[in-house]
Design goal:
This protein is of the alpha+beta class. The protein is 22% helix and 23% strand. The protein has 4 helices and 7 strands; from the N terminus they run E-H-E-H-E-E-E-E-E-H-H. It starts with a strand and ends with a helix. The structure holds a DNA duplex.
DNA sequence: GCCAACGTTGGC
DNA sequence: GCCAACGTTGGC
């Protein structure tokens, strides 16, 4: 799951109660569907920092809630307001994410260089989706990289 | 700031 | 339903 650290970083989440944050602001249907339809409490998450000087995985996290409506869609003054969403028929859903560990930053370049991650969706050319599925093997490989000395 | 690769919008 | 125009993402 991608987040811009200037908006919400791993450190920001660790400073929150329970180190937990609602994953607000997703406004892409496929990303929403992943949260709404495929994520379950306990699912493991790679917390990725994007649009920053050093993009890459910065922490490990897990899903700690089922999907529920993203409140920011109802805030008419906020940047995530959606005039077509209503309380009765919310358009955007989110899950709560708990950061379980801050890791050393595993850079995008480092992940691209690892042969076992060649098929990882987030690394594919043209991928812009802020939430993408990760296989158990890919997850384990990235966790392994977090434990290595910095490249 | 550039630009590839999308996703969305809206006229028809 | 088509598709051109436009907006966004995100690495570089």
């Amino acid at each position: 799951m991608k987040s811009e650290p200037s908006e919400v970083s791993v450190d920001d989440v660790l400073a929150m109660p329970e180190a937990t944050v609602p994953w607000f602001g997703v406004r892409n249907y496929l990303a929403r569907n992943y949260m709404r339809d495929r994520m379950k409490v306990g699912d493991l998450v790679l917390f990725y920092h994007s649009s920053c000087p050093e993009p890459g995985v910065a922490g490990l996290a897990k899903v700690v809630s089922k999907a529920y409506p993203d409140d920011t869609q109802f805030d008419s003054k906020g940047k995530y307001f959606d005039p077509k969403a209503t309380r009765e028929e919310p358009r955007w859903m989110l899950v709560d994410i708990k950061v379980t560990k801050k890791t050393r930053l595993v850079s995008l370049a480092e992940m691209r260089a690892h042969p076992d991650l060649a098929s990882m969706i987030v690394l594919q050319k043209g991928n812009r989706l802020s939430i993408t599925p990760v296989t158990p093997d890919e997850y384990a490989t990235v966790v392994g990289l977090t434990k290595k000395a910095a490249a």
